[in-house]
Design a protein that fits this description.
9-stranded mixed sheet, PPDK_AMP/ATP-bd, 5 domains, single chain, elongated, 28 helices, Dna Ligase, domain 1
């Protein structure tokens, strides 16, 4: 940097006072009025033009322009309403574009308060922009209004800038008082100076200095502008309804976001007092995020529209919300912003994510934020809490981000220091999950890669109770207002469905190892899926997720270990006596009773209000949202079978309808059919042409070691990219997307997101069994991506499966991916000849066969 390359301010006397400016300087003026700032900008701009400098004016404020339009001045108009990230990124881009030794004039930074309502974010902006301008050897003028910002904001600016100067306008005279001048010093530099035309008269006499400063209005410590706005809103409670509504909508913009369908719903149901109550539980400042908004809104809808139908059954919540500004501040204070800016480009989107993720995982929080964290933890005491992602884009219409970001249980055991350290690390983990490959791929595929993803956090008390050294709720699950799991033509899909588990809900939202959740059709809760009696126990839940107080972590335990403990409720609500198993055990000499219970929730569904209540709840939420919804919940019972539901989450769920009925082909010869089955599919009525089939051979896959199975998953991901834009059917053994290679192919969802159809085949000899995972995050991802799903149980009645229809065709794997040719015995890629998938909801029939021609067939019913 040209440290000796001196530059004039345009005021010769003042140049002498501060030993001139230097390339790389950021110059911040504290002023009372923007018009005073203009007086100091004008000579600087004139001098820059005389010196033939490139001059850029960055315009964003609502005040009058600082400079008149001129061909010699390049003006950038930036929209600060887009938020901190968009604004800071735009400034970063223009500085890189304008290059070295550019001169800048910025509008008054205090005007950013009108858009961001946060002093903290102004200091964050300065902290990321000032070093970049310095790095490019620029010269930049900024202004902030005196007595408007907090001491901490001014301290941050003083620490970061090269020059900080007070500009006073007293009795028609202008005075400049240097507060910081980097790497320059003279005996009179830090005295106030009277500016008279080109002269700067140093005021050294104590009497003159005292007269000047005594005439200046100074105030004490200022509240953050965020707190000022909320204090004004509290005062609005004493005013009329019109003033209250105006204040409410302003606060909603600060906490919930810009105008949207969700914003309109919140405006309809929340009062000003509701919003202020939410604000009392916000840590830091900024948005509370989509997950928090969805939970709060759903509870409010049930309270207002339910006419006391639901309120007696709802467990209250006492959640906290860590505002999105805390996330941005964490990135800025830990030196992540420059790397984040590189990562937010198309070229760097995936390239820099791993490095950024590591930096986020190893960062530190500021002391003021840590103090707020500590107060929150003191409130919860030793109750377990869950730290959940709640990004701005999450759980909104069109984008659910289901399962893309982390949620972390804090069992909250140990010393206060240990509990605090675990809580901080949980927040870092959620922040770092913004760089997860699946989350990035989801954003890229949905055209969101350049959108602000402001990560707030929802901190909830875990619902449940202590049972010896375990903590868990009696029930947990997910509910959909539209039941897409239609295995019987008599099922009313509009009655909704539940995916129900005993214990923590992690088993309800994930595809679990060797275990099955209970699927409940709410039009007839006792209707059972098409499973034979002997398979009733096999397709039930056998493991329970709990928080272990001893191990201080989330763990899984066998239902058999838990069933005979004191559940503080009637265990017969959840489990039924399994007579066949009991008889077999008796014959084998076992005397214990616990192994003969099966988790089928029969009495719960038959004898309690629970299923009717859930059906009504889902119907009401769906009606108000004017959209199908998906909820997460827990349920806790008392000894007399009374229960409380804790509504943890609610979001719009994009679903496909049944679609127009299609004419199903006749099977003249089953050998011409790739497969045919009844039920076990999701996607409505379709007539869908298939260009390629990617087939994973079960036997060859089973014979591979675990490392090789993971390699197969990565190769499927490469095919997912290579065949993007084609209609591709992915066929494989067991469960796609499992985390356990022995149960299926462990692909990430981003590695099959471009497929048109995925098919899970049961190969019992090799241990592969599909899981009809309706209600899981995997299911929601399929629905959002418009992927048709089929499970085929080869060998069962009404099932035809002829893999040779595909395997006899040329394997194109090596042609498409030469680097994967060694996997040709496992992965077979066939270009099909008029293969078409047909499905019909009414008959529950699915057929995939050659149509006999290559002509294009329009798919029906896929949205």
């Amino acid at each position: 940097m040209g440290i000796n390359n001196k530059v004039s301010t345009g005021l010769k006397g003042f140049d002498q006072a501060i030993d001139m400016l230097r390339l790389g300087d950021n110059v911040v003026w504290q002023v009372d009025e923007v018009s005073d700032y203009r007086k100091i900008v004008e000579p600087y701009a004139v001098q820059a033009r005389l010196d033939q400098r490139k001059l850029v004016y960055v315009r964003f404020g609502r005040h009058a322009p600082l400079l008149k339009e001129s061909p010699e001045i390049k003006v950038y108009h930036l929209d600060a309403q887009k938020g901190f990230e968009g604004f800071a990124t735009a400034v970063h881009s223009l500085v890189e574009q304008e290059g070295q030794e550019t001169f800048y004039v910025f509008d008054c930074l205090s005007d950013l308060l009108e858009y961001w309502y946060s002093d903290l974010m102004i200091s964050n902006f300065f902290k990321v922009s000032c070093p970049l301008l310095h790095e490019f050897d620029t010269l930049a003028y900024f202004a902030i209004k005196r007595n408007v910002h907090t001491y901490s904001t001014i301290a941050c600016i003083r620490e970061t800038t090269q020059l900080l100067l007070d500009l006073y306008h007293v009795k028609n005279k202008f005075y400049v008082h240097p507060l910081k001048v980097w790497k320059r010093y003279s005996p009179t530099m830090f005295f106030p100076h009277l500016i008279q035309d080109q002269e700067a008269v140093c005021i050294t006499a104590s009497s003159e200095a005292a007269e000047l400063f005594s005439s200046i209005n100074r105030v004490g410590e200022r509240l953050d502008y965020w707190d000022v706005v909320f204090n004004k809103a509290r005062f609005a409670l004493t005013l009329g309804l019109e003033e209250q509504e105006k204040a409410k909508r302003l606060l909603m913009k600060l906490l919930i976001g810009s105008e949207s369908r969700m914003f309109d719903l919140c405006d309809r149901y929340f009062t000003l007092r509701d919003i202020l109550n939410i604000a009392t539980r916000v840590v830091g400042s900024g948005f509370i995020g989509g997950k928090s908004v969805g939970m709060l809104l759903a509870r409010k809808i049930l309270e207002q529209e339910g006419h006391n139908r639901f309120t007696p059954f709802l467990e209250p919540h006492d959640s906290y919300y860590i505002g999105s500004d805390v996330y941005y501040t964490y990135l800025v204070q830990n030196g992540c912003w420059k790397l984040r800016t590189k990562q937010k480009t198309k070229e760097g989107f995936f390239k820099y994510a791993p490095e950024l993720k590591q930096k986020i995982l190893n960062g530190k929080f500021s002391e003021p934020i840590r103090e707020e964290f500590m107060r929150m933890l003191e409130y919860f005491g030793q109750s377990p809490v869950i730290v959940r992602s709640s990004s701005l884009l999450e759980d909104n219409y069109g984008n659910t981000f289901a399962g893309k970001y982390e949620s972390v249980f804090c069992v909250n055991q140990g010393t206060p220091e240990e509990r605090f350290a675990a809580f901080e690390q949980a927040i870092r983990t959620v922040y770092a999950s913004t760089m997860n490959e699946d989350a990035l791929a989801y954003r890229m595929n949905r055209g969101l890669f350049d959108k602000d993803e402001q990560m707030a956090i929802l901190v909830q008390r875990v619902s449940g109770d202590y049972h010896k050294e375990r903590f868990f709720p009696h029930l947990a699950g997910v509910g959909n207002s539209s039941n897409l799991y239609v295995w019987d033509k008599s099922i009313d899909m509009n009655a909704g469905m539940l995916r129900l588990v005993f214990g923590l809900g992690t088993r309800a939202v994930e595809r679990t190892t060797g275990d099955y959740a209970k699927i409940v059709c709410l039009d007839n809760p006792l209707r059972t899926p098409p499973v034979s009696c002997e398979d009733r126990k096999k397709y039930s839940q056998r493991y329970v997720d709990v928080l272990s107080l001893k191990k201080n972590t989330l763990t899984s335990q066998s239902w058999d270990e838990i069933v005979n403990d004191d559940l503080k409720a009637d265990k017969n609500l959840f489990a039924s006596w399994d007579y066949p198993t009991a008889n077999r055990l008796r014959e084998l000499g076992y005397t214990g009773n616990h192994l003969a219970y099966i988790l089928d929730f029969y009495k719960l569904l038959k004898d309690t209000e629970f299923p009717d209540l859930m059906r009504d709840m889902l119907a009401l939420l769906s009606r108000v949202y004017d959209y199908p919804v998906d909820i997460e919940f827990t349920v806790n019972f008392t000894a007399d079978n009374r229960f409380k539901i804790n509504l943890l989450q609610c979001r719009p769920l994009r679903t496909r309808g049944l679609g127009t009925a299609v004419q199903m082909p006749e099977l003249v010869d089953e050998r011409d059919c790739f497969f045919s089955t009844r039920g076990n599919f999701m996607g409505g009525n379709v007539r869908l042409p298939v260009d390629y089939v990617v087939y994973v051979n079960a036997q060859a896959y089973a014979e591979r070691n675990e490392q090789s199975k993971w390699a197969v998953a990565r190769q499927v991901g490469l095919l997912n990219t290579a065949l993007k834009g084609k209609s591709v059917m992915l066929v494989g053994p067991g469960r796609w997307g499992t985390s356990t290679p022995s149960l299926g192919v462990p692909v990430h969802f981003s590695e099959l997101c471009n497929m048109s159809v995925i098919c899970e085949i049961a190969f019992c000899d090799a241990g592969f069994t599909p899981e009809l995972s309706y209600g899981t995050h995997f299911f929601q991802n399929l629905v959002e991506a418009g992927i048709f799903y089929i499970a085929i149980f080869d060998g069962q009645e009404d099932v035809v499966f002829n893999p040779e229809c595909i395997l006899k065709k040329e394997n194109m794997l090596a042609a498409i991916l030469p680097q994967c040719k060694q996997s040709a015995n496992v992965i077979h890629v066939a270009q099909t000849d008029g293969l078409v998938l047909f499905s019909d909801i009414v008959t529950q029939k699915v057929i995939c066969k050659s149509n006999g021609s290559k002509r294009s067939i329009t798919a029906t019913g896929v949205n």
